[in-house]
User: Fold this.
Amino acid sequence: MANIRQAMKSEMQEIQNFLHQYWRKNFILARDNDLFEWQHHTINSDLLNFIIARDPQNDLIGILGFIPSTQYSSQSERVTLWLTTWKVKPTAPSLTGMQMLQYIAKIIPHSSIGGVGMSLDVAPLYKALKYEIGTLNHWYIFAHPNQASIYPIDNNTVNSLKEDHEIHTKSFIELTQDTLGDSQVFNENNSYKNAVYLINRYLKHPTYTYQIWQLEHNNHAGLIVTRKIKTEKFTVMRIIDFVGDALSLLAAPVYLRPMMQKNDISYVDFYEYGLPADILNQAGFSLKDRGADRIIPDHFEPFEYKNIDIHFIFKSHEKIDTPYCLFKGDGDQDRPS
Assistant:
């Protein structure tokens, strides 16, 4: 029978070797120590955010990574666990993976548990364990209303539009580490995603550069976390996370599109679940049709010109008064590969 427990920091290299051999060769977490520790070294502890399984000979036969919301902020009493890399050796006993999942659900304190980027191969297992299973909605907005694809239209047309719009910075402003804590969004927000969380999760990321913007619409305020990606043919701005009042997104048609045009951003995309679709439609976003020919890619490292569905699981141990929301930034979907 496997010995299942939380990993120690001294076992980090062994886990990285396991990832390289059984998850994917040269996987980023197997070779980037800074990213691994930032994401999986339990704060102020000798533990790692990994559950491991060892056989009677003490060989590593399975791993289950997770990221508690307290990894980025200890100020919230509500803890969400985000499951990440889950892998067992082909020769491991058949129930090893299930046992690791049951261990984390019983032993690691949390009020809810989920995962973004789940493989449909394990959907029946999660369903049997009473997890909700779904697919993130993939929204997008082009820089120009007449734009037909992710590739930018003629520069002369775009430049003429830049002169016709003014970005009103009072209602669409970028926040920094020094100004984020003063945002009115946190006055009414009961999410664990407070200012400390957003700073540590995004503004202090060891690899990526994120920006945090405050949107206001008729006294409704929200924050969007974005990351720009520049390819050979276009630049995309991806909305990775959102905190606040969904009605604030109605400011997007007035402020977001002119900002895109000014900065030569071809389009913005947004993976989410739980936000009102009518608000996103009014905000100028279009929902990617899974059966249509239009391509809104997700993979950029390397770039793949194809649509990607992101599936999720979620289970709460608390009564939820309002629908829960999930975003690409939850878990480890937005990280180098």
Observations:
- The longest strand covers residues 220-230.
- The longest helix spans residues 12-23.
